[in-house]
């Protein structure tokens, strides 16, 4: 490793972790610092890519669909659209002004890094809306509400994958959920009820109803972008035939698994015996096949399934099976 990279690593990675002022680092420490620097750089490039793509998608949804047809969305973006419609203040100014409190709240709740990324993403969206002019795609109200919501929601989701938000509503929801003891979803729903009620009163009921479709589509698009195409399901299996089930999951389903040691308890006297508990993660498309194979081995197996929002590490991607 040449002296240039050594200086970069010591200044950006190792010095930040070194509390005693020691500057004499071993080759192992330098190699570990280089790996961390590389990971940080690649993650930064990935985050910037997602944020830029999200900004372009959201701007296209706004200018190509929502703005020309006087539609709004939920959240901070919906507030900006509503105020812009009523006051003729440019949307790009309102996007920044309305989100300033949310960025500050994000700094307090989620940290400096999140707040800086969010401020950059919102500013980028405002600049794009002000300077890049996308063509009006359609004036059909149903198409506007569906595709405007899709591109806006996809843009928000891509920004979230980049570690930022271009709509600060969720930051407020996280903060209030901690203070009030409610769920984040409840806060977001109540927040949007107020926005759409105001839209119905100040604009028209028809506009508010179409805007609700926009919001629902945007929410589904956001979930789709964040969670991906494959929705995973965690499956816990308790059966005396655990070894057969374990081999079936690895050989027929092609998935990895984890085996826990546990004890069963049943009957009025609390009879117990040791048993292996299997846990695996499959896609929703593989779930039916897994249930069928379990049924073949043990019709009385105790199976618990729960949704998994995201996964990383391990053997998540399906491995190639012999003979296929």
Structure characterization notes:
With 324 residues, this protein is an alpha+beta fold. The protein contains 11 helices and 4 strands, in the order αααααααααβαββαβ. Strands 2-3-1-4 form a 4-stranded antiparallel beta sheet. Helix 2 runs antiparallel to helix 6, helix 4 runs antiparallel to helix 5 and helix 4 runs parallel beside helix 7. The radius of gyration is 26 Å and the shape is globular.
Give a concise summary.
By secondary structure, the chain is an alpha+beta fold. 65% of the residues lie in helices and 11% in strands.
Which tags fit this structure?
single chain; four-stranded antiparallel β-sheet; disordered C terminus; alpha+beta; globular; 324 residues
Gyration radius over CA: 26 Å
Average the pLDDT over all residues and give the rounded result: 82
For the largest beta sheet, what order do the strands appear in spatially? 2-3-1-4
Number of helices: 11
The percent range for helix content is: 55-70%
In this structure, how is the largest beta sheet organized?
A: 4 strands, antiparallel
Order of helices and strands: HHHHHHHHHEHEEHE
Shape: globular
């Amino acid at each position: 490793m040449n002296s240039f990279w050594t200086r970069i690593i010591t200044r950006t990675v190792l010095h930040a972790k070194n509390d005693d002022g020691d500057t004499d680092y071993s080759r192992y420490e330098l190699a570990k610092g280089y790996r961390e620097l590389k990971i940080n750089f690649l993650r930064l490039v990935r985050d910037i890519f997602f944020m830029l793509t999200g900004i372009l998608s959201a701007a296209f949804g706004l200018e190509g669909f929502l703005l020309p047809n006087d539609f709004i969305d939920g959240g901070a973006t919906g507030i900006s659209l509503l105020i812009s419609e009523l006051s003729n203040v440019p949307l790009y100014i309102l996007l920044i002004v309305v989100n300033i409190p949310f960025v500050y709240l994000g700094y307090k709740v989620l940290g400096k890094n999140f707040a800086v990324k969010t401020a950059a993403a919102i500013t980028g969206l405002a600049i794009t809306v002000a300077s890049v002019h996308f063509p009006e795609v359609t004036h059909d109200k149903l198409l506007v509400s569906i595709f405007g919501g899709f591109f806006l929601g996809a843009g928000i989701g891509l920004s979230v994958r980049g570690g930022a938000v271009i709509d600060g509503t969720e930051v407020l929801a996280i903060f209030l959920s901690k203070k009030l003891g409610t769920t984040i979803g409840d806060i977001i729903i109540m927040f949007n009820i107020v926005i759409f009620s105001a839209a119905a009163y100040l604009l028209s009921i028809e506009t508010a109803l179409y805007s609700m479709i926009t919001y629902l589509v945007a929410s589904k698009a956001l979930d789709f972008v964040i969670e991906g195409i494959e929705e995973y399901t965690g499956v816990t299996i308790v059966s005396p035939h655990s070894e057969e089930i374990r081999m079936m999951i690895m050989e027929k389903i092609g998935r990895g698994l984890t085996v826990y040691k546990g004890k069963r308890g049943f009957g009025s006297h609390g009879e117990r015996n040791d048993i292996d508990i299997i846990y695996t993660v499959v896609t929703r498309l593989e779930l039916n096949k897994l249930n069928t194979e379990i049924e073949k081995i043990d019709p009385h197996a105790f199976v618990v399934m729960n949704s998994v929002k995201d996964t990383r590490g391990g053997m998540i991607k399906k491995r190639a099976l012999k003979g296929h």
